[in-house]
UniProtKB/TrEMBL annotation:
This is Uncharacterized protein. It comes from Paraburkholderia azotifigens. The lineage of its organism: Bacteria, Pseudomonadati, Pseudomonadota, Betaproteobacteria, Burkholderiales. It comes from the Bacteria.
Amino acid sequence: MAYYYVEPEVAGGLGKHTVLDSSVHPPAITRLHYRIINWLGDALLESFPALIITRDAASALNEAKASGYECRDLELTVSDSFREIYPERTLPEFLWLSVTGVAGRNALGIADDSRLVISERVLIVLKTFGLNHALVESY
């Protein structure tokens, strides 16, 4: 099976309520607050070292029996500028995508260089929900 590095859309950053341990690399997050500044529409977003995914895309990964991840709740907020630019835009529900798998072995894994690695099957699933602004290259 083919595997791919994926560098997702960065639509914002870690919010002030994020709790992380920066004494380790990558930093370990115990509470995630993601703050959207400008979302282009992808189902998978990142702000190192965190990944978030729409609930619909996460459900599809679960139905596909993908391995190597857990979904958790997070706090999601939007910036004032986002509200000004997109006053009518409704965001989908997002979940924290905690990747626990081994790159190249599980459907989702983290490579030694801290990049996300996904199987071809997961790539196909994610593309159906929107992955237009991610960088994707062979693993």
